[in-house]
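Minutes, project check-in
Item: structure for the 109-residue chain
Input as provided by the requester:
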Amino acid sequence: MTYPELTEFQSKCEQKLLDRLARTGRAILDREVVEGSETYITGTIEGTRISFWIYDDGADFKSSGRGPMFEKPDYKSLDDLADDFVASIGKEIEKATEQGNPADRLRSG
């Protein structure tokens, strides 16, 4: 089986996300690389309702039906974009934990 080639941005962004999740004791679940007009990475964050997508030069996540889109034109560099994407997911995890997200209660019980 051959795997699609990821862009440098996708690889770096995913690694930054994995590193951030490791600090919170979480992991990526249901990771998939989807091929089409654009190859992208998708998955969910363990113990949350967060789904994410990492595109060639952008990223997105949804939590409870909402989430920002991170696009190349809005940043000085793709590294800045990846950093903001990962930090925003981290904040969403912290907020869910503080509010007692039902998924977090299931995870700890």
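Outcome recorded: The helical segments are 8-23, 78-98, 102-108.
No further action items on this chain.
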